[in-house]
Every structure is written in C-alpha cells, then in structure tokens.
Amino acid sequence: MSVNHTASTLTKGLLSTVRTGMEEAVNRSLDRNIKLAVTGLSRSGKTAFITSLVHQILFAPDSQNLPFWRVLNSGRFLGARKMEQPDAHIAAFPYEKALECLSQTNPEWPEPTQGISEIRINMRYKPQGMLRKHLASSSNLTLDIIDYPGEWLLDLPLLNLDFEEWSAQIARQCRQSARADLAQPWIDLLASYDMHAPADDRILQKLASAYTDYLHACQKSGRGLSLIQPGRFVLPGDMKGAPALTFCPYVGKPLPFSLTRSRNDKTLYGVMRMRYEYYKTHVVRQFYRDHFARFDRQIVLVDCLQALNTGVDSFHDMQEAICMIMKNFQYGKSSLLGRLFNPRIDKLLFAASKADHVTPNQHHSLEQFLQRMVASAHNDIHYEGIESGCMAISALQSTDNVMAEFQGQKISCIKGRAKDSGEEIALFPGEVPIEAPQVEDWLDERFRFMEFKPPRLVDVYNQPFPHIRMDRVLEFLLGDKC
Amino acid sequence: MSTHWQSPVVLDLKSLEGQEHAVEVQTPVVVPEEAVFVPIADSEAVIKDEVVGSRAQNDSSEFQFVAAASSRGRGMRWFWLSLLAFLLLLGSYESVILVRHIWYEQAVIGVLLGGLLAIMLVAGGWQIWRLWKSLQQIKTVSLWQQRALAMEENSADGAAHQMVAEIRHYYEEQAIRLDHWTVFQRQLDNVHANGEALDLFSTNVMSSLDKRAQKVVVQRASEAGVMVAMSPLAFLDMLLVLWRNTQMIREIAAIYGFFPGRVGQWWLLRRVFHNLLYAGVSELVSDAGAELLGGKVSAVVSAKMAQGVGVGVFTARLGLQTMKLCRPLPYRQDVPRLSDIRREIMASVKSLLFKKS
C-alpha cells in the first residue's frame, strides 16, 4: 500500500514537473508578438490613439465598454502589463505624460510627437484551442507599438526616387495654386544662384533654410497641405543643422545634361544631389530598416474631416500622400517561416479618426468617404489577398451625443468643449458626404467640422476612456491571435 | 449622386434635452400593424431587393417558399375555411336543436348534455384563441427577423435600438427573464450602428435563451435516439419520435416566449417540416458530411445504434429549425452547429447501449 502510494506520488510529481516544463516550452514557442504599425500623417491622432489603445488594454479587465473584444467578453482575458521595451536606445512612449495632459482640470490633447518612441505591452489570456488549452493554462501576447512624427513618414517614398525625379515631383507640386505663392521666395532664391558654381556651404545653408521656410509655410498655411518632404526639415529631431539636412531640390530652368549626369560633386548641384543621396541612405533607409520593415498589423489613421474642412486641394494632397506611404509597407499573407524572417502586414485597418466630431448617424458616411478616399491603395492591398477594413473611430470620445430641438425638428447633435475657445458648445456639425465632393461644393464653406478639446474625465488613472469602436479595432487587430 | 448636404448648425445649449451617455433604450412603440407589416407575398420582393450578403441569401429561401405557398394556396384556403365554417354552423345548429329536444323529453340528461356542449364550446374557443394568438406571435417574430435582415448594417439610424426595445418589451409581457439585459444596456451606446447593436444583443441577451433551447434539443434528441435504439418495433419508433418531437418543439417555443396550444403546436411542426424540406442545400450538404462519417462509424458498432443516432440527429435538426423559426433575431455569427449536438447524442446512445450489454 505505502509503496503504491509513494509510486503514485512520484508519478504525480513527475507528471506535474513534465507539465510545467511543457507549459514553459509551449509558452515560449507560442509566445506571440505583434508589431503594430500605427500610420498616419501628422495631426491625424496617432499619439492619442496609442495612448487610448494602451489605456484600454491595461484597464480591460475592469472595463465594461469593450463589448466587441471577444477575448475579454468571453472571460478569457487575464490581464495586461506594460513591459520593458525591446530597444533600450529608443525613448519610451510618453504614456504617463499623455495621461497627465488628460488629467488636468482643463484637459489638453497630448503634445505632437517630436521623435521616435516605443511601448511594449504584454497581455495574458486563457487559450481557446483544444490542444493549447491542455498544454498551457495561460498564453502571452506581446504588442509592440512605435510612435513617431507623422512628418517622417513622408520620407519613405523618397527611397524609390533619385534626386532628379524627386526634384521634378517637387516642381510639379510647386505649380499647384495652393503652394505657388508660398514657394515663390525659395524658387526666386534658387534661380539667383548658378548651379555650376563650386559648392559653398553658406549658399547651401541659405537655400536649405529658404526651402525649410517654405515647408513650414505649407504646414502653417491652414490649407491642409500634407505632402511635405523631406520630413526631417520641418522636424529635424537631433539632426538640426547637420550637413545631411543642408540641401534642397532643384526646380527651375532645365540644366544641361553634362551637369545632371556628371558625377562631379564639386558643383552646387552636385553637392545637393550628394546630400540628398546621403539623406536617403543614412536617414530614411535606416529609419525604415530599424522601425518599418517588420510589421505584422497596420492601422492607418486618416483625418477625413480635416481634408473636408480645407478643401479640394488638401483632399487630393492627402490622398496622394497616403497612397505614396502605403507603397512602402510589405503586405501579404505571412507563413510560419516568413513570420520569423520576413514578416509582412497581413491585416490592415483604415480608420477615420475623430469620429466623435460628427453625430453617430454620420459614422457610416464617414466610413464610406474614407473608403473612397483610399480606394486605390485599398485595391492594391486586396490584390495581395490580405484582410482589410474601414472604420470610423474615436480614441477618446470628446463629445456627448444629445438631442436638440431646431426649427421645430428634433435633431441629433454633439456637445463638447471647442478647441479654440474652450467653451462648451453644442452643434449639429453637418453631414459627411459619402464621396469626394465636386469642386463647387467646396466653395460655399459647407464643411466646417469643429475641433474639440478632450473631455473632463473623473479619474483618468483608474478608469478606461470613453471611446468609439476601440473595441472593434482591438478585435480586428488582435482578435485572431488570442 | 445628390450633392445636397446639410451644413453645420450651432445650437443653443439650453435647447438640449436630457444628455445621455449610455443610451437609454426608449420606451417601445408598438408598431401599427398596417404601417409596417408587409404581406408575405410582397415581402419576397423587399427581401430580394434590399438584402445583400450570404447570410441573408441563406435565410431568404424560407421566405420565398412561404410567399409562393401562400399565393398559390389562397383559393384552397377559402374552400377549406368555408367548408369548416359550414360544418361548424350545421353541427352547432343540429346539436342545439337536439339538446333542446332532449331537454323537453328528459330534463336531467338535457341539462347534462347542455353543460357538456357549453364546456366543449368554451374549450374549443379557448384553443382557437390560443392558436390565433400564437400565430400572431409567430408573425411578430418573422417580422422582426425580416426587419433585422433588411436593416442597414452600418447605419446608426436607431432602427436596431428600437427593435431590441420591442423584443425586450415582448419578453417582459411574457414574463420571461432576459439574462444579461443590464449588461447589454450598459454596453450599448448610441454610437453603435445597427449591425453592432444586433450583434451585442445576440451575443449578450439572446445567447442565454439559445443555450437553454440547445440544451433541450440535445436532451430530447438523445432521448429519441436512445428510445429508438432500444425499442423492438419499427411502428413504435415512429410514434415515439413523433411524441418526443412535438414535445420538444413546444418546449423550445416556450423558451422563446410562445405558448402554442395543441393546435398551434401542430401548425408549428408543419412549418418546421416545410423549412426543413426547403432548407438551403448548403446546410444539408454540410450536415450530411458529418452524418455520413459518423453514421458509418456507428453502423460498424451496431445497426440499432446507427438507427438511434440517425433518429437523434433528425430530431436535433428539427429542434435547430424550430429555434431558427422562434428566435426573434436571425442568427449572426453564432449559428448552432448540428455536428456539435451530434457528438453528444452519439455519446449518450453509446453509453446507454454499452451499459446495457
């Protein structure tokens, strides 16, 4: 009897040891890691989105308002935690700072991103599959998110262009009515120098600063111009004043073939071309290689309302910018081996951000508008056979939906604090068209979607944010992994 | 495309009505029947025009069938109805005369007969009233199903919120408790589009009813399977199956809030059979695969057991079809699968047979 008993205890102990070992091994080998690309032009709400996403995940176990995130709703989600990020040399994503901004008595949106930062979250859940359920009692999913200035994103298309092609592209842009007057001072300055002359650093600096002024002017013009290249000129980060940023594209009279084709680096033109190439290989490509080549999932945030507000030129500008950017990501179904060596984005979500700035009955129109806007990029992606979707979302809902009486009719409207005045305002923000409006529709100031300040929240540090469809975003991006 | 969009309007803060964060589902409005109800014959066109998507196509076959049948059978129906009314009138007239006649001859027997006649009339009327009521209920449900299918998924016009409130009101009237209603209400926000609201309702609220109904299906189906596996007579099998099935249908209907009387239950059974016959081919094919495989395996074990499992699966299919008919919302992603139920039936039949031997 006692022998039997000892034997059974031994077996049990052995079994449990084997089980724990197996569990570890399985956890290790099945440990999943998702690298999420949060893509969006500047001011499209990337930082707010990341802050909200992280916050929703961290507070998910207590959250009542994530009904569409299935792992949570089926009770399998155990918890989440912020982890040490994988790359120690990159700044940590200022999550706490963003929360601080939002917790003030007069909450403000997080400040625009100036440099690259990173955050890693580890989620723990009970696995669902028959096999995995028996092998491991809990599984991990690691989510890596990188935040970076949207301005830098527009450098990616440069990778496929040489100096002449890029210059031609810039020249074409400068002829557009929205940019022509802004570009004129720089073009005049450029025309006053002889490109054949030997390079002089002072001249180069003058040209670069004139070009930078033009880019800044584009940004601040309020005309909603998105195509601003190179991004480091307006947001140099730690590269301010470096020779790699001291050049500009050449627009103007066609230059003799001998100059453009010669590899002479002594002329003004030659140096500009050389520095452009340097910029491409050492700044853009490195940025791309370090941060952009290994994504599994992508969300593209588009501020459709801004495009509508600023008019037809801005709309086309933004459309072109998005299509250009999308060409630089790798899409496709990833296989098991491929995931290790050559990951590709196998799920892509287009999100119309700031959906809380319109009434709920306009969300569908907003989605359709976005779909039309990104149609060409969308088609390419469909061709690769990957799953994609379109959603109207709001990372942090800054308005309340209320009903109001207007001219004897009940209309649905939104109420929030206006961004410029900080006063509480209620308005019917107007309807969103479902396709790109005709030029004449833009003339009579039909679209004036107002910006809002973040809401006053009771306890930012302990409660999830109010949001619109962040749960569906989570389900779309992570749902099949856990 | 029309290019008329409404421009922005700034409103007076004082003109706002109660601000609502989470949506308060408004008090249900009883939809006037003539306003919304589309005669089934016409609804075919509505469904074909408005609903795109595989889910809808699957389900529309049922409506198409009903529509076709009702237009063709209209002449016959008048014939039967008038014949029935004629016989009823004739019968009651005859019996009244007869009872009165006996009353004069033999007062005691006359009173007795008169009492019996009265009881019969009241009971019959009660049954007819219940039938009529359950028909109304079923009509309401199929109306809800049609509305859910025709609803624009991505629009947030509040149609789903309204419908959900109506469904809830219906269950309240039937004194059926909807689990998780408060959870659902907390989660539902007025930013949710129709499709999202229906999804939430389906996964949160309807699923508890579904689970109960599915449990009944599994139980009844395994019972039927076991009975057939044990019974020595083929004729007895048939009666047993019929008895179990009608009982199951009544139970499922009760879970979803219908209480059809005996007559209504036959009517329901008829409709379930119709749907079963005209069920989508795809559904049949997918089920048949599982059955063929399982059937072969169980046939190897025992012929009687194969028969039992076969009958059980048939009962289960009947049950699932009844669930589909009685459920106020068409299934969304959470369609119950026959193959899951099948496994349980087989297990119970097997355990019984092997225990016996």
Can you offer a commentary on this structure?
The complex is a heterodimer of chains A (482) and B (357). With 482 residues, chain A is an alpha/beta fold. In chain A, helix 13 packs antiparallel against helix 14. Chain A has 19 helices and 11 strands. The model of chain A has no long low-confidence stretch (mean pLDDT 85). In chain A, the strands form 2 sheets. In chain A, strands 1, 2, 3, 4, 5, 6, 7 and 8 form an 8-stranded mixed beta sheet that branches. Chain A has helices spanning 2-30, 46-58, 70-73, 95-103, 130-135, 150-153, 163-174, 177-191, 201-220, 231-234, 257-261, 268-292, 304-310, 312-326, 336-341, 363-373, 375-383, 439-443, 470-478, and strands spanning 32-40, 77-83, 91-92, 117-125, 139-147, 297-302, 347-352, 387-392, 400-406, 409-417, 424-428. In chain A, helix 4 links the parallel strand 3 (91-92) and strand 4. In chain B, 76% of the residues lie in helices and 1% in strands. In chain B, helix 4 (74-105) runs antiparallel to helix 5 (107-150). Classes of the chains: A alpha/beta (482), B mainly alpha (357).
Q: Briefly, what is this?
A:
The complex is a heterodimer of chains A (482) and B (357). Chain A is α/β, with parallel strands linked by helices.
Summary keywords:
heterodimer; A: 482 residues; alpha/beta; eight-stranded mixed β-sheet; three-stranded antiparallel β-sheet; globular; B: 357 residues; mainly alpha
Major sheet of chain A = 8 strands, mixed
Stretches of chain B where pLDDT is under 50 for at least 5 consecutive residues are 19-69
* Individual helix count of chain B: 13
Please report the number of helical segments of chain A: 19
- Order of helical and strand elements of chain A: HEHHEEHEHEHHHHHHHEHHHEHHEEEEHH
Arithmetic mean pLDDT of chain B: 74
